[in-house]
Amino acid sequence: MLLVLALFLAACGGNDDESNGDDSASDDGGEDAPKFLQMLTGGTSGTYYPLGGEMATIISDETGIETNAVSSNASADNVIALQEEESELAFVQTDVVANAIEGINSFDGNPVDNVQAIGSLYPETIQIVTSADSGIASAEDLAGKTVSVGAPGSGTYVNAEQILEVHGLTMDDIDAQNLDFGESTSGIQDGNIDAAFITAGTPTGAVEGLGATTDVSIVPVSQEKIDELIEQYPYYAADTIAGGTYSGIDEDITTVAVLAMLAVTDSLSEDVVYDITKAIYENAGNMAHAKAEFITKEAALDGIGIELHPGAQKYFDEIGVSAE
């Protein structure tokens, strides 16, 4: 009898321990919730890394899943890491991940089929920068000019190529130079190039630096061309560079932007991604980073050109937000 009683008590104790383990692992995301998540961001001096750190803290606090923000080489490398299941979450540009899903540009021959969207975060504005005395007032005026378009295959290069396309131009119609942002603005200052495509959050340091020595002009994109570009490439969104963003430019400039977004592998469950999405978009107001003001429920589906994860879709359906 004593042996039977001892076995019974041991069994009860084991059940209690197992139950407690399930509770701590599942939390809000259900039984299949992981205990840890890794969020790939970007370089430590950029926007992705500090903003990702704040998001990781919010996800950890709100879902009970310990989430770490990790520095990386940003969008293209992040997509590959998600594809190879080296991470679960990542910051990416909307156009880069759309290219990855389609298997085009830098992902030519290597389409990605396991990455889905949580939502967009903030605009990375496409700025056609020139000097005020260049005589360039529209994209059509770039014909025959020396223009920096970024490295071949880069996001900036693809943006330049597509904007030229909707204006009836190709790379063959300009003297294309493959320069980085600093080299581009230095070239404008020195008179070696006429204009530069720069895709970055505003204000962009390189453009601000140019404005300290040169009267800067930003070439606008008309609403007609904005609509045409978005229809053809849905990962773009309309954007405005507000007057006063750069010294000497007092009027608003209409243009387009790709967006920074959060992407996720399709291996995470609907419940887990629902909780992550809810945590981010209902707590963005608690983030201190300047770009957090753009992270809103209403704009979360702007520029998304890939499929939403079912968990994110569930959240946005619940709050009545849909893609336009």
UniProtKB/TrEMBL annotation:
It holds the Pfam family NMT1_3. InterPro entries: TRAP_TAXI. This is C4-dicarboxylate ABC transporter substrate-binding protein. Transmembrane segments: none annotated. It comes from Virgibacillus profundi.
